[in-house]
Design a protein that fits this description.
mainly alpha, globular, about 0% strand
Amino acid sequence: METQLGSECRARPGDDRKQRLSDRLLSLKVGAMLVRNTVVSTSAFFVGLTVLWVLVNRFGVSPVTAAAIGFVLSNTLHYALGRAWIFRGTQRGIRSGYALFLINAAIGLMLTVLLYAGMLRFTSIDYLSARILVSLFAGLVMFLLNATLNFRQV
């Protein structure tokens, strides 16, 4: 005769698909995606900086306009590489995926600016070090949003 405790501990059909998020995040699959995301994010960041520099120094575009153009171009590159390499096999449509990606990027931008301003105001951390620390945190948040909500790979 099975005890009530025994029946509660037994796996129910479909439970393997509903693994806890923390268990799914701490997997080799997600670790590999995070490594690929880091490569793509870093590359896209440098593309954005290069576009910014070229537009300002070679074409005389205002820095704010150039930053916006660089942001959109680097995020478009990140989306294309993310779809093909980081989150390959996603069932999300291209247009809706790109729209969600840009929404997540805007969230990341707001998070970056708020955390950066806070670190500069309330800590003695050097501005470049603060920017790097904030980017690491915001980048991880963006990866998690895209992995779970947009591309649904976790």
